What does this fold into?
Amino acid sequence: MALERLIQKGKGKLAFGFGGNPKAKEAVRGGPVFEVLFNVDNMLRKKWIRHDFEISFFAPMEKPGARLGEKALKMLDYMFKKKRIKKYTGKKIKEFLPDGILLEDGTKIESDLTLFTPAGDGHPVIKQSQNIPKTEAGFIKIDKTCQVEGLEHVYAIGDCVSLEGPDWKAKQGHLAEVMAHNVAHNIVLKEGLIKGKPQYYTEHLNIMCLMDTGDGGALAYRDDKTAVLIPMPVIGHIGKKMWGLYYKLYKTGKIPKIL
Ligand SMILES: Cc1cc2nc3c(=O)[nH]c(=O)nc-3n(C[C@H](O)[C@H](O)[C@H](O)COP(=O)(O)OP(=O)(O)OC[C@H]3O[C@@H](n4cnc5c(N)ncnc54)[C@H](O)[C@@H]3O)c2cc1C
It folds into this structure.
């Protein structure tokens, strides 16, 4: 593994970044990149070799992480400074090179190892389809019940759909699950098999993310009223590991759903 080779060498330049999709801002994948970045930083510190590594973060948008709110942005900036991570934002990526990243203004970020997560984009099958209503980015247009616009008995959920809602909305796994439950409910409701009201995914839009930093974590939460990033030293890391274990056991049917 490239990172292990650099660790053996005892020095190196690492760059972590993510891209945006201007046609679908909710498809950005920032959280996981911050998580890997801070975990690598922490691992190098534990090995007492962090001072021989240069870590950079890059993203084309002016304020990556802004969807979590202003306080979260300030905290991220504080963490970058505290952990000596160089930040390059607001400049488009021109080219990935074997030894770095070239930005549109000619800036070159030196890097021996680059980790980049592009934003989500419409699936080629949907982009090429003739009669599925879709956005310019190639995401399926649905209504609040997850029914595909204009196509009765056809529903779509998860990352392949275009989300309606506030600017800070984001495509997340838990939202895909909510949509799946909603669709099952809405189908039997429509068929007259149960009584009640349709369920709307738009009522469950929020961002909840426990960002593991290796030595702790930060809990990010955003909805219409709240935007917080709560630092959780030590416990955040343990909590994320416990969540992973719980999720695996629950999804494999070994324990009942608790949360
Ligand atoms: C790096 C990363 C980290 C993330 N972390 C979090 C997190 O911490 N919390 C959270 O809530 N969300 C997180 N997400 C978002 C979450 O993973 C997605 O929102 C969620 O997986 C969407 O579920 P989905 O079923 O719509 O799509 P997917 O999980 O992508 O499933 C789509 C499936 O369809 C398959 N497929 C694709 N094309 C075809 C084809 N032509 N034929 C057959 N099968 C096909 C794919 O292989 C895949 O298995 C993360 C996403 C990424 C990329």
About this structure: Residues 29, 32, 125, 158-160, 171-174, 176, 209 surround flavin-adenine dinucleotide (CB under 6 Å). The first strand starts at residue 12 and ends at 18. Residues 124-204 form a domain with the FAD/NAD(P)-binding domain fold (CATH 3.50.50.60). The longest helix spans residues 173-190.
